[in-house]
Write a structure and sequence with these properties.
Structural class of chain B: mainly beta
Number of helices of chain A: 0
Helix content of chain A: under 10%
Strand content of chain B: over 45%
Shape of chain A: globular
Number of strands of chain A: 12
Structural class of chain A: mainly beta
Oligomer: heterodimer
Distance between the termini of chain B: 37 Å
Distance between the termini of chain A: 41 Å
Radius of gyration of chain B: 13 Å
Order of helices and strands of chain A: EEEEEEEEEEEE
Low-confidence stretches of chain A: none
Largest sheet of chain B: 7 strands, mixed
Order of helices and strands of chain B: EEEEEEEEEEE
Number of strands of chain B: 11
């Protein structure tokens, strides 16, 4: 069965610092990849997604992620974080031939941005 | 386009009781997935319904069940509640075919006492 790991449980940054959150998955085939964000008291929202094509994908609020197939990784980046980026971030994977498969989520990384 | 709605938003039940949660997906979406979210376990997949059929199921006991109606609305039922069932239950709506993403509702916060 596929699994998703996220490198950090809790990341603390100061405003304007750069962010990189790691995500690795285990699945031998082709996958679709996602990052979701859950702001305090709010529901999960899609930040960005990768289906195919350019492995560098841009999402909302200045976030981007790079798919590196050889490393089974899909790391999330943002050049300069803001206090409003404080949230929990989840990486998710689903096999490309996804009929009958389900999304698998990583355990989440809590990001705290200090003003 | 209206988002995913879940009712009720909050629920308090006693051990041994049963509970039914409801989810209305985005219009045109045929797939509804349910997840249990807890601080220690993250998002755990319960099951997915597509066109009224359960398409996939996670590793939860038979006390957890669900169904989907012809209008794609879905319900989830938990019988014989246990303290450990206290969690945020999330519903996610999607097209369910082709490359697709899931859109999440606000969740139902279930507390079992």
């Amino acid at each position: 069965a596929q699994s998703v790991s996220q490198h950090n449980h809790h990341v603390i940054l100061s405003e304007a610092a750069s962010l990189e959150l790691g995500c690795n998955y285990s699945y031998g085939g082709t996958v679709n990849l996602f990052w979701y964000v859950q702001y305090p008291g709010q529901h999960l929202q899609l930040l960005l997604k990768y289906f195919s094509g350019d492995p560098l994908v841009k999402g909302i609020k200045g976030f981007e992620a790079e798919f590196i197939k050889s490393k089974f990784s899909f790391n999330l980046r943002k050049p300069s974080v803001q206090w409003s980026d404080t949230a929990e971030y989840f990486c998710a994977v689903i096999p490309r031939d996804n009929y009958g498969q389900n999304f698998v989520f990583g355990p989440g990384t809590r990001l705290s941005v200090l003003p | 386009k209206a988002g995913v709605t879940q009712t009720p938003r909050y629920l308090i039940k006693t051990r041994g009781q049963q509970v039914t949660l409801s989810c209305s997906p985005i219009s045109g979406h045929r797939s509804v997935s349910w997840y249990q979210q807890t601080p220690g376990q993250g998002l755990q997949f319960l099951f997915e319904y597509f066109s009224e059929t359960q398409r996939n199921k996670g590793n939860f006991p038979g006390r957890f069940s669900g169904r989907q109606f012809s209008n794609s609305r879905s319900e989830m039922n938990v019988s014989t509640l246990e303290l450990g069932d206290s969690a945020l239950y999330l519903c996610a709506s999607s097209l369910g075919s082709g490359p697709y993403e899931q859109y999440f509702g606000p969740g139902t916060r279930l507390t079992v006492t």
